[in-house]
Amino acid sequence: MFAAYASTTDADRPLDALVLGDRPDPEPADGWTTVTVRAASLNHHDLWSLRGVGLDASRLPMILGTDAAGVDTDGNDVVVHSVVSDPEWRGDETLDPKRSLLSERHPGTLAEQVAVPRRNLVPKPSALSFEDAACVPTAWLTAYRMLFTRARVVPGQTVLVQGAGGGVATALITLGAAAGARMWVTSRDPAKAERTTALGAERVFASGERLPERVDAVMETVGAATWKHSLRSVRPGGTVVTCGATSGHGAETELNRVFFLQLQIVGSTMGTRDELERLLAFLERTGIRPVVDRTVALRDVREGLSAMEQGDVFGKVVVTL
Ligand SMILES: NC(=O)c1ccc[n+]([C@@H]2O[C@H](COP(=O)([O-])OP(=O)(O)OC[C@H]3O[C@@H](n4cnc5c(N)ncnc54)[C@H](OP(=O)(O)O)[C@@H]3O)[C@@H](O)[C@H]2O)c1
């Protein structure tokens, strides 16, 4: 079957590690099944994999991709939950020390077919297209958990999202606004920042700009470039949730600020199967949909990854098959 995979890894030039070509069809293990992929979407995770972050040489070649919507072997339209936990694990899958995401240990979704544990299949609401549904399992699920499970944001609170254009950032803004939070956004790019007002952002700021007042919670995906500003922007007792560090991990924690202002710094990773079901229901009921920057065919996936590497996206890059 045709697939996009990492044949090697390259920390500096990740796209040099990308190969488009044939890989063997999946052979699902006991309790697993096969999904025919109709649409997938790209995440920064795919670039990290090509750079060798979280993907060591012993696992190569590895099919990329953590997001998919498609059709199962019984003909049902499904969304794939990408967090693969140990078969013995019970409870929140994201807390299983043995968990992995598709494309880390098991081949990923950027292929005509993907093998997944049966329990990782979630029915696709008919109101969502395959393209929209394929945006949800990583970036949107991560945003949902950051806002509602980890920061426990409630209607009327003010939330700052660092970065405007990323898949997670656009999901945070859209979900938070739909849930009645006042969403503030920073960006390096005034044009991108301005576009977030259509998603429900109430105010936009330049990266690092002083806010008119401190916020209840900050959503961090950027890391080193914005961390200091995040700590300065949250109110005493407020929460900073971090799920990623696109600009690097090397940020100073400023412990004095953390204890004196009684800040909560909270990590977040992906989400559970239950959260994915609730998120899909939320999209169905509210009518909000993922922001799609562009749609490319699998054979043109390099174009999408390259745009993401250059920070030249606003929302998700969808891959169709
Ligand atoms: N833990 C998890 O489960 C999980 C799940 C999903 C994603 N992540 C991580 O979250 C991060 C975001 O992922 P993504 O898929 O949304 O894509 P992305 O393409 O990495 O998103 C880039 C975002 O970061 C901002 N940004 C990048 N460099 C910046 C800089 N130097 N200064 C200020 N802002 C900067 C961009 O905002 P502007 O261009 O508007 O400035 C944009 O909003 C990645 O690191 C990813 O690995 C983690």
Briefly say what this structure is.
The chain is α/β, with parallel strands linked by helices.
Task: Characterise the protein shown here.
The chain has 321 residues and is an alpha/beta fold. It has two domains: 2-135 and 290-320, Medium-chain alcohol dehydrogenases, catalytic domain (Quinone Oxidoreductase, Chain A, domain 1), CATH 3.90.180; 139-267, Quinone Oxidoreductase, Chain A, domain 1. The protein has helices at 44-51, 130-133, 136-150, 167-178, 190-195, 227-233, 255-260, 273-286, 301-309, and strands at 2-6, 18-22, 32-41, 62-63, 67-71, 77-80, 83-84, 100-101, 113-117, 121-123, 158-162, 182-187, 201-206, 215-220, 234-242, 264-267, 292-297, 316-320. The strands form four sheets. Strands 3, 5, 6, 9, 10, 17 and 18 form a seven-stranded mixed β-sheet that branches. α3 (136-150) packs across α4 (167-178) and α3 crosses α8. The longest helix is centred in the middle third of the chain and has 15 residues, at 136-150. It is globular, with a radius of gyration of 19 Å. NADP nicotinamide-adenine-dinucleotide phosphate (NAP) binds at residues 43-45, 48, 138-139, 142, 163-169, 187-189, 192, 207, 221-222, 225-226, 243-247, 269-270, 308, 311. Residues 13-319 form the Enoyl reductase (ER) domain. Pfam families: ADH_N, ADH_zinc_N. It comes from Haloactinopolyspora alba.
